[in-house]
Here is the input.
Amino acid sequence: MRSQAPSLIGRDTQLGLLERALSDAQQGRGGVVFVVGEAGAGKSRLAAEAVGSALGIGMGVLRGRSSTTGPVVPFRPLTEALMSLFRTGEPLDELSLGPYRPVLGRLIPDWNTGAGDSSSMVILGEAVLRLLMATDHGRGRLLVLEDLHDADPETLGVLEYLVDNLEYSPVLLLATIRTDFSDALDLAQSARRRGAASVVELPPLTRPQVHELVAGQLGASPEEVPAQVLERLWEGSAGSPYLVEELLQSMIGAGTLVQGPDGWRTVGDPRGDVSSALARGILRRIERLGAEGLTLLSAAAVLGRRFPLTVLQQMTGVDDRALLSHLHAGVAARLVVPDEPAPDWYSFRHSPTVEALFTRLTPGQRTELARQGAEAVEKLHPQLPGEWCALAAGLRSEAGEDAAAGKLFTEAGRRALTAGALGSAVTLLSQAETLLARAGDPQERAGALEHLLPALAESGDFDRAFGLVEHLHALDSAGLGASRLAVLHTRLAKVAHTAGRWSDGNRQIDRAREVLGSSPDGAATAAVDVTAAYLALDTPGTDRIQHAEELARSAADAADRYGLPSVACQAWELLATVARERDPHESRAMLEKALSTAERHQLPLRRMYAATRIGGNDWLAEGDTTGLVSAREEALRLGSINIVHTVDGILVLDGVMRGAREATREAATECLTIVRRLGLAPAVRYLLMSLASLEAHQGDRRAMEAALGSFAEWEGTGSQEEPLTLGMARAFCALMEENRDLARAELGAVSALERHNPSTYHLSGTHGVGLLLDVLAGDADRARHEEVAATAVGRMRWNRQFVTLADAVLLGREGQGERAAERIETALRDAAVYPAALHLGLRLVADAAHEDGWGEPVAWLRRAEHHFHEQGVPAVTNACRAALRRLGAPVHQHRSGTDGIPEQLRALGITVREYEAFRLLADRLSNKDIADRLFISPRTVEKHIASLMNKTGAADRADLCARSTRLPKA
Here is the structure.
């Protein structure tokens, strides 16, 4: 019987697609193909065929595989694939990779300078892409990554970048994934939806294909396959090529299928339990290897599905000749295969082989083999670099050595966290904490928790992080040192800050200071101070900004003295936030210092935070979201859920300001659902405020109030977002209702609120639209304008447009009409990306321009009237029309207004004006109030109401009002 069929059965279509993709890559049109199928569907076989085709046309091939058993190791498949470049003899040191070469030290040990690197996943992805292209030499390159369903999150982060950037390269990425739910499968499906990759699915074989496969395995024609055998294999395999082959092997091994002079025939009944038949067949093949072969493979099984020969030899003590002899026998018996991407590594063909070997081992034997494996790894790799640390940890755990395993898992998790591999860090550190708790080692357990708490916070798992409070109580009673215990309370306080639970955070800070009171420790105090500073900034109080700045400066000074780069970065980030209000250049310099410190000390998470704040500053200054979008992509690759959704909130507000209503509402609603579930209070508050602003900018007060209904439930009172709910939402809504007095009252409330609870959010209107309204009302003069215009907040783009309009109004009053008109043009340039604000500004200044005889008030009013009519904001539309009439200008009628009337009301003959009055009845307004809103006479309103009652059949005005509340939103 052949070890496998001579040709690939039932995969012609898939193979044809791969061959076309290979040809395209050779011509510079690279791409990505995901091969998806159930276990045993033939994914690896198809990948092997693609490798053969690539080599046949002269392409270079790199291969890597994710680990299917054992601890998580960041970047494992990529490292395996790229390391094979060093076995080709190619002079890689001469490649012109520029600054990207040291970045690749995270994946290629030979290029690791020892200084480390904290570059983003985007930069790392670009570095991999450049290396692949630099080693192409005009032949094309195939990168094969197998078993991505077991890949670590960091590998997937790099792959996401490659998927989006291989199109114009000579590289084809071929990846195999099981159909089981996994992040890799999500990545593949997402890439297919956006047209960035092809997904090749491997369905089960049909009955004729199973027949062909069996015939090929037996070296016979299809007619020579016994019917009973075909029936048994078809029923038992469900079309899985692997099960067909294994069941066929079992039947031959058990003697129920034999070859005679007349061909293949059955002996006895070939039917039986599939799982039992598989296990018996595998064990029979193992037993044929002899006692030493069984021992060797048992030791290999303990090491994992993949196993290194150096460690296996160290464990068992067999010589080179015996080792290779048994491995070759194992290959012949279809038990193991060389793991081609990695030198001196082999792997079991399928997991049932490992399971069958474990049935032959007693618990004591497995424990002893695991202990021997750990000792072998530690002897061969004393510093346990890269994946060896996690492998040794897993073996120590298997050996029942909880304390030793916990220490090693802590170290592996710490390395992953330092490298920004959040997903791997949480997994490894969770294992460490569990093992060390069981081992009763408070010192080492505290070390695991110190890293696990921030990892959980960054990944958004707050419930689990707060669930560890009881663990701190246990450590306290176990006699943990004051400094270590204070650090843990501080880490938990930081988790509370990230979740927006400032009161919980302050309690943890108080506990940390209480613990340190009897044993002062400068380094621990610095960590407490910087976390306390962030909490102070969010805790309601008149001096919160001053208090936060003092704490942050103290922490920064201590960080310099004690060499605490992470504390220093956090301190400079907060100081930059405070400095932004007085000097954006000073703020930028502080953030650049935090960024360089993070890069110098290989702190990718802190680097991401600094980059996010730089992006936020750029957005406030000029409305530029480029930096924020880049920071969000980096946060997504690092797994920092907190930053991803923080940036999402800012982008939602940016969408509100830019007038992208539907896309913004959809994004806000989707994000709000997620952050509510995660308990990210600051993000929830920001999104609620943004949604309220979205409705306010349409003049829809009911929808605005509905959006703000749960704001207080998320600790909104006294929060930094609260002033924005008044300025960006309620004040703007009042302006869209043409109620300037109410708008000014709301902005006055903002000023009072910020006196009691100062905010570092600067778009509440006090330095923008509030100044314009005060100038128009005559309550702000030139001196007040110059005071606001000189501030950094007044120079932020959203505020600047209104400050410039206020300057124009003042210049017009001062008789400088020409300069006033020039300032209008400047304001319009600043407001170009903010359509609602632009047209509202024209509406607000038109009357003043007419009174003082400058500018083009009629043209401005026409422009504003057209915009607000198109946007469905009737109050401002009508006000513009009334103003045009006062100026003696003709008012153009819009005949498309009936589109906004529900079909059933249009059928009753209700006019646009009647419908406008009908909608306002929901608020139980009087005829005079409705007249004021629509800029018509009370008598006209009375006629509209009478007509509405007649057309709708309403019993009375109260009935009509009740019907109005059921009208669809505008």
